[in-house]
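Dear colleagues,

As part of the handover before I leave the project, I'm documenting each prediction I ran so the next person doesn't have to rerun anything. This entry is a single chain, and its sequence is reproduced below.
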Amino acid sequence: MKKLDWLNGHYIRALGADELTERIVAFHTERGDWDASIDVDVLRRAVPLVSERMTLLGEALPKLRFLFTDRVEIEEAARASLPDNAAEVLDAGIEVLETVSLRCRIDPGRAEGETRRRSGHQTEIRLSGRCGSD
């Protein structure tokens, strides 16, 4: 089964963002759980953020759900993996964000010296409330 997951993930990573987005929408539409309120353009721009960690089409929306909701619930497994001072750091970040004007964009960049997996995992927990492996 692991070899099939690897092969499927390899195939997904070979697709461009436009093609992968179309397949994700088609998959969820056929399955009957597509939410028509999802902005497909936002999904298309966000797909590169999660495509490297996908093995199945159905994994994209759960990983990106934080982009399409106003409320994020932090799961206990995700909370347990955050450092002890996470609340302090996040409060300081909120304070900064409230005092500056920023243009929001989706960019799969990462801090220098961090692997995509590590920086993505920390960002995903902070934004989505979930662990990337869930």
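The longest helix spans residues 17-31. The radius of gyration is 16 Å.

All the best with the project,
I.
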